[in-house]
Design goal:
five-stranded antiparallel sheet; globular; binds 1-deoxynojirimycin
């Protein structure tokens, strides 16, 4: 390719890789306890290498009482025994590096577990030396001003603790008290812990809920009107506007990230595209990339928690969000893109169509979208097979505290729990947490014991072994696309231009460098669609570079697209 030789400004390895997210609990169990573990993951490194990905993001594997599947850490520098040992993590770093793949760990520093020694000390007495590691509100000041908790049966982020007659703050579960970032000693302890992992050879971090670390510690009252007018009734928008957020991020950069060849990806709930460059502009020396939630909010009603809109989502709105976020980094900073992860349902069910006749095509189409947009793709394990939501029937099937506490909350309020359970079949996080489907055997090749969460029965026909042997499978399609991204630099660095923004079925865009490159045509619908290609785009030839179907109906520039057909053409 000509472009391989051209000069591209601001190249970086982390802009070029595809990130593969591994949810360790559900990836591969090696010892039959029903829980995925590091030795299991180590046994699958050749598989991961075969995908063509360049960076693995591993969800938390640190010591944890496991209320929130590892996002409640009780010791940052030890490995949760059910996952393995420090020797296993060392072997993972070495094993990935030997295969040319980097490793990203999860950094959970907005909160700890209530079993962390810091919190155990902090709650003992008001004058304990760890008291100011967390946010406390003494009872003599009266009830603390309302703060919302994401995982609490009363949605109350303050928990009364009798030992010191005070409340403590927890934006997530009561077992996840928020750290007090105002305290410089806390910040130094965290930086020291980050250095510990960097010195071991990890290549970077995904920063959990990082927009929430900074708080106004006067805890002003927030009225319902203010919440509605300024924050769209969504506490995330308030929580992400903490006063010293960028001061802390810059300090962390200077203390630990600066000068190292590494990458940071911030999880940034509550931020708007106008805020994005504050986090990732090169000159600010804070972070490298972030992932936003704007796309994830689409297709839910505003009436209830994660309630799918029966009308689905409008493709024009989907295009608008992803185009605007692409444009936000057009000349500075750099973005990421994802359609699913461990906090979202399976992308196939949410954004494609998991009915038998459409699942293969729509899963490949979503993969095409993720790997051809101008952003580093974060691809969730199992999506390369086109895994779908398990759609549990009963609350007892669920393991996730978000679902369990929300169910209790709705029940307490006298709300419609049956409706909630129907909604969760589409939007619940556990849909993405069912085990990887390695083969058609009873436990999908995931475990020889009893899995910690049910395995999707569709593994008998959706599994890695079958797909590896089938050249037309979603798995092999994913491999083709990771290879194409390496061959065509336009797919990484090329400008993004959207066509037919208002079309409600077809998403068409180009990725070009100096006018030449690739056109992407995606039929985001379960219908046949007649589509006229934009006239100003001359194709190099009418043979597509990639087609997720085995046929193509095209006359001059007019296409008859099959349901969920995805095409890549080279431009002249
Ligand atoms: C975001 C994580 O991705 C999610 O799984 C977790 O529950 C919360 N942060 C709290 O750490």
């Amino acid at each position: 390719m000509e472009t391989l030789h051209m000069e591209i400004k601001d190249k970086a390895w982390w802009k070029e890789v595809v990130i593969y997210q591994v949810y360790p609990r559900s990836f591969k169990d090696s010892n039959g306890d029903g829980i995925g573990d590091l030795p299991g993951l180590l046994s699958k490194l050749d598989y991961i290498q075969s995908l063509g990905v360049g960076l693995v993001w591993l969800n938390p594997v640190f010591a944890s009482p496991n209320e929130d599947n590892g996002y409640d850490i009780s010791n940052f520098e030890t490995i949760q025994p059910e996952f393995g040992t420090m020797a296993d993590i060392n072997a993972l770093i070495t094993g990935l590096h030997a295969r040319g793949i980097k490793l990203l760990l999860d950094l959970v520093i907005n909160h700890t577990s209530d079993q962390h020694p810091w919190f155990i000390e902090s709650r003992k007495s008001r004058d304990n030396q760890y008291r100011d590691y967390y946010h406390w509100w003494p009872a003599e000041k009266g009830e603390p001003p309302k703060r919302f908790s994401f995982f609490d049966p009363d949605q109350n982020a303050w928990k009364y603790d009798v030992a010191t007659d005070s409340w403590y703050l927890h934006y997530f579960a009561a077992s996840q008290p928020d750290l007090n970032w105002e305290n410089p000693v806390v910040r130094q302890q965290i930086y020291q812990m980050i250095r510990f992992w960097l010195d071991k050879g990890v290549d970077g971090f995904r920063l959990d809920a990082i927009t929430y670390i900074a708080k106004d510690i006067n805890f002003p009252e927030i009225t319902e009107d203010e919440l509605k007018e300024k924050y769209e009734n969504n506490w995330s928008y308030y929580y992400s506007k903490g006063p010293k957020l960028h001061e802390y991020l810059h300090e962390m950069n200077q203390e630990v990230f600066k000068g190292r060849d590494m990458v940071t990806i911030a999880e940034t709930p509550g931020i708007e595209k106008e805020d994005a460059l504050k986090f990732v502009h090169e000159d600010r020396q804070e972070l490298h990339m972030l992932y936003h939630f704007k796309g994830m909010e689409l297709g839910y009603t505003h009436h209830a928690f994660k309630q799918p809109d029966p009308e689905g989502y409008k493709l024009s709105e989907f295009k608008k969000i992803y185009s605007e976020w692409s444009d936000a980094f057009a000349s500075e900073g750099w973005g990421t893109i994802y359609l699913g992860n461990h906090d979202q349902p399976r992308m196939l069910t949410r954004w494609g169509n998991d009915a038998p006749e459409f699942r293969l095509a729509s899963s490949k189409l979503l993969t095409t979208f993720l790997l051809t947009m101008r952003a580093t793709p974060i691809f969730y394990n199992g999506d390369e097979l086109g895994m779908s939501n398990i759609k549990f029937e009963k609350i007892s099937d669920y393991r996730d505290i978000e679902t369990l506490y929300m169910y209790q909350y709705i029940q307490k309020q006298g709300g419609d729990v049956d409706q909630f359970l129907r909604d969760q079949q589409i939007s619940g996080r556990d849909n993405a947490r069912t085990p990887m489907q390695w083969d058609a055997s009873e436990n999908a090749g995931f475990t020889s014991g009893e899995s910690w969460i049910s395995i999707n029965p569709d593994h008998v026909y959706i599994n890695e072994t079958a797909q590896d042997a089938d050249s037309n499978s979603p798995l092999n399609y994913f491999r083709k696309l990771t290879a194409l991204r390496k061959e065509y630099l336009e797919l990484i660095y090329g400008a993004y231009t959207l066509y037919d923004a208002a079309h409600e079925q077809v998403y068409c865009y180009t990725r070009t460098i100096n006018g030449s490159g690739i056109m992407v045509v995606l039929n985001f619908s379960s219908e046949l669609v007649h589509y006229q290609l934009p006239e100003e785009l001359p194709l190099k030839n009418s043979e597509p570079l990639l087609n997720n179907e085995t046929s193509l109906q095209m006359e001059i520039n007019r296409l008859i697209l099959l349901p969920w057909q995805a095409l890549l053409f080279e431009l002249e």
